[in-house]
Amino acid sequence: MLYYLFTYLDQAYDIPGAQVFQYISFRAAMAVITSLIISLYFGKRWIEYLNRKQVGETIRDLGLEGQLDKQGTPTMGGLIILASLVIPTLLFTDVLNPYILLMLFTTVWLGGLGFLDDYIKVFKKDKRGLPGKLKIIGQVILGIVVATAMYFDDGIVLREKPRQIEQLVQNIDISGPASRFEVEEKRSTKTTIPFIKNNEFDYAVLLKWMGPGYEKWAFLIFLPIIILIITAVSNGANLTDGMDGLAVGTSAIIGATLGVLAWVSGNIIFADYLNIMYLPNTGELTIFISAFVGANIGFLWYNSYPAQVFMGDTGSLALGGIIAVFAIIIRKELLIPILCGIFLAESLSVILQVSYFKYTRKKYGVGKRIFKMSPLHHHYQKLGYPEPKIVLRFLIVGVILAVSTIITLKLR
To answer: Does 165 have pLDDT greater than 60?
Structure first.
């Protein structure tokens, strides 16, 4: 709420320095610092509390090196990430911005869903946790909320191709700091498609076979696509959370990349230069994602090998959902297979392993496996690679994928 306080002080009393809160770059920097401080301070005390309550992870013996050493490590550490993300967001963003409201809802909704799963496992001593069907239902509800908001909310608009900067400059009222570019804005189901010169794709086109007027039914195709993306990425992050620092480190890299994409998409000059969609009012998302990166890095302080705390589903479900919804909001969800390549590989390894095992068992009577173990990081662990080396190499691949994602802005 500091954003509103200092805006009022600046307008009402012209207090020197108060106007600095109008700068997104300043608020983004403050969000990072605040999230780091909260995660480091709150994290230590939360871990101490979990240790006193003996809220430890129950480890199933899978024959992995060093696995049983993690027995009793506190879980539900995802609350550290959520607190370190939500508090700076409330302090430094315009919380009435529809994009910020969507991201806060996503964070609390999936964080709550994951917390319920961890609570059942830890306090109710039920290893199964929350039934998988209920998790999917929760993700579907989130998808419905996001798709409905993006399709019907008048505050969520885009400008497909900004007019030339020279024309825009002529329309600027330079008499005050609140001057804005005047552009034609509209609601749309268009998104960005990589490697294509005219890199815009409208989901409504998939219904073109319906004939004239097909555009008014675009929501019917938009909704299931959004649900699929959110469910896939959220579960992909959940599967990646199997080694110390892997999921949170990967998420920090992805978050930093999404921050760059949000920055250029919400800036009329960068959007015009890169010839991409201009998304008004998405600049506030830069502050949110800055807090997200800071929260992940702060949690990594305690989650790096050997981990002092695990995030549990409280963190992993929320991380994946936040990444998915953020990418959808800035119309970059079709870049997810590249940017979230680690999540994708982990998910595919499980799908292929299970499918091939069932197929060979049905055909030959004996199930066979493609990998020594899935998800993929456990395959390398079975091959004898130490956990820290696997995590570090996965993070290096994550950086390569992040750079490749940013390159797609001009590589067409």
So the answer is: no
Amino acid at 313: D
The dihedral built from the CA positions of residue 340, 342, 343 and 344, taken in this order, carries a sign that is: positive
Largest Cα–Cα separation, the chain: 80
Write down the pLDDT at residue 161: 56
Mean pLDDT (whole number) for 47-72: 74
* Spatial separation of the C-alpha atoms in residues 296 and 302, rounded to whole Å: 10
C-alpha–C-alpha distance, residues 124 and 258, integer Å: 37
Terminal C-alpha separation, the chain = 41
Which residue did the predictor score with more confidence, 255 or 55? 255
> What is the distance between the alpha carbons of residues 144 and 165, in angstroms, rounded to a whole number?
37
Looking at residue 75, its amino acid is T
Q: What is the pLDDT of residues 169-209, one digit of tens each?
A: 455 444 444 444 444 566 788 898 988 877 888 899 999 88
DSSP-assigned beta bridge partners for residue 192: 200
pTM for the predicted model, two decimal places? 0.91
133-159, pLDDT tens digit by residue? 999 999 999 999 999 999 998 888 876
Question: Residue 61's pLDDT is what?
Answer: 61
- Rounded to 10 degrees, what is the CA torsion of 100, 106, 107, 113? 160
Q: Do the beta carbons of residue 109 and residue 193 sit within 8 Å?
A: no
> Which residues have CB under 8 Å from 204's CB, separation 6+?
189, 214, 215, 217, 218, 221, 222
